[in-house]
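Hey L., structure's done. Input below.
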Amino acid sequence: MVPIFCSPLKTGYKIILNKTFNVIRSVIIDDEQNNIDNLRILLQEYCQGIIICATALNATEGEKIIALHQPEIIFLDIQMPGQNGFDLLKSLPTHNFEVIFVTAYDQYGIQAVKFSAVDYLLKPVVIDELKLAVKKATDRILNKKQNLKLENLISVLQKEHHKEDHRIAISTQKETRFVNTQSIIRCESSNNYTTFYLENGEKLLVSKPIYEYEEILSDYGFIRCHQSHLINKKFIRSLVKQDGGYLLLSDQTQLPISKNQRELIRKVLEHIRED
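Output:
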């Protein structure tokens, strides 16, 4: 088998590989050199077949190495000085690669990443999580699958101020569906599962707890009225006082209100007539 050479851009780092397993070109973009070095060591040790063509310490240099090396996987920090990782993605003309976000921040930008179900790793990187993220990305590459999750993330970033056009990635046992947030009536919790009730009558079951979606959907008009219920307030018909108080939705569903949520619900729904 012919050895594969991956030439460096600025790091002087070269890999010569002569193996029978599949080879995947990658680059690392992070504003801290020690993070780059640590990730490089982990990839070499635990992710066979991933070759690191180049690294960059900022988005400007990152754009250059992406154009030069045409990587199949980009390990990308989100928060960097100047342009951040999202800015870099939006500036690229095409997105024919996989992205694994690697960030030290559990808040900055993570909601957008979760919204589209794109893979991400928190620093310090956990080896098993790295191996799983790389395996999923590699499988998509080898099977030539279109990365719809990344495309959805790019769309969300580009339409940042048009939330009515945003589609959330809902991963069921069979598929990942991209659903407009304004077509979701409510979410209902059952232990570590969440059921989405859609305007067209469909129900989608997801193996994630409801609190994850409470965070993701908080900017889209969703409110938690009860431990088991997250609702899109545009579908609330009225706040009913009888029987201890409950919310009546446009599809005639009646949802209870937790005692500790009643005052918050009243404030949020001041414009809704009480029956």
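The radius of gyration is 22 Å. The first helix runs from residue 33 to 46.

-- N.
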